[in-house]
Amino acid sequence: MSKDLDLSSYDFTLPNDLIATEPIKPKENAKLLIYHNGKITHTTFYELFNYIPKDYLIVLNDTRVINARLFANKLSLESLHKTQILNDLILPTKREIFYHKHLSNNLHLVQIKGKAKLHDIFTLQYNNTNVFIQVVDIKDDGYKVVSFFTLNDEFSLKSNLQNNFTTTNNLALHNDLNMQNNLALNNSTLHNDFTLNKTLTQNNNENLKNHSTQNNKNHNNNKDSTQNSSKVLNNALNLQKLLALKQLKQNILSQEKVLSLLQTCGNIPLPPYMKRESIEKDSKDYQSIFARNEGSVAAPTASLHFSESMFKYLKENYNHAFVTLHVGAGTFKPITCENILNHKIHTESCIIAKKEAQKILESKKILCVGTTAMRSVEWLIRENVAQIENDIIGENAIFLNPFNPPKKVKALLTNFHLPKSSLLMLVSSIIGRKETLRIYEEAIAHKYRFYSYGDGMLII
């Protein structure tokens, strides 16, 4: 079997001190390795355009990184039988919610650090309002599908409830959300299910059993009453069920509002290998100067090398085209299967405007700035578009490697990537695995800085 198939054949040892945790300033001073016809030249980005012929179309990814790292508090629904005060339900430890992408019908894909079950609810403050994030589905790969929502004023869980009601006996979030000890469950709806809990008092058990029996008749279920009670208790944690029964009036946040929330409450999602929290200057450093379409959770890092003056020179002297590929969290997911062809690569949203697509298809010589631009171009080519009538929009899951080489792109500006990564295999798809590892060995010997804030290489 070819070594190019073996995951271990894409491994190399990188000293920790070569992992860049901040960018070089000015940008032109970053090191640049030129690979041309088997020859390696060492220079800096100041000399970049001296190595790119004017007849190349330069393709850039104009995606913009969103503040994808949210921190929210989990609601302790198990405590609802003790208190109806929101502050008493909020667990003190904040949990990280890493936003991945918008799906459809205002549902979103996220990763939640730590254990998170179906129907779990998290909350955070946004514009003096409690925003709730509920898990509505769990994918096989561990990703969570969530909805972001607020509640209408009459049902809102105000953060100052405790202050408002400390001198009264009415500590209910709302009568429709309150489970009294003398709960009357003669209503055929789940009127008070939000406050049902596994530790409901003895006084409520009989009523709960009756309610469960009625509920199971509606579902033609003949399980015993203990199982029925358990089922209703599970439903009690399901806000979606309550909303369907119109017991809660929920304001689902649109995609635009979720992006606005992320911008205000979220943090720049620095890659985990930087091993540090983001700081204010990362909001600028981890964003290309031509980024405009929000949606990425990681930067297309080759684009970070362009200063204002470099980009101005590019626009004035080269034909260029923009694509939009929103980099997903899967870009950091390691390959674990020993045969690389068994790897199922992540999908990412890709948009190429009609005019830009025409430029790409008509060009004979293309230089892509970054692996995301290259994947976009190769995705377009494989779409087999005979005649472009509209913008090209879809999910990009192309996995470029030595067994699936590029059909159009022969030149690439890129950073230095992680061992055993799909991006390292992408570089190998152009010049071969052995040459790629030879270049990396020389880059390490010359103290090139690796990864997102690191130096770059030009294959041309």
TrEMBL record:
The record's GO molecular-function terms, alphabetically, read:
S-adenosylmethionine:tRNA ribosyltransferase-isomerase activity
| Region (Disordered) location | 204-229
Q: Which InterPro entries match?
A: QueA, QueA_dom1, QueA_dom2, QueA_sf
Q: Could you tell me where the Low complexity compositional bias lies?
A: 210-229
One Pfam family matching this protein: Queuosine_synth
Answer yes or no on keyword Glycoprotein: no
What keywords sit in the KW lines?
Cytoplasm, Isomerase, Queuosine biosynthesis, S-adenosyl-L-methionine, Transferase
Its GO biological process terms?
A: tRNA queuosine(34) biosynthetic process
Q: What is this protein called?
A: S-adenosylmethionine:tRNA ribosyltransferase-isomerase
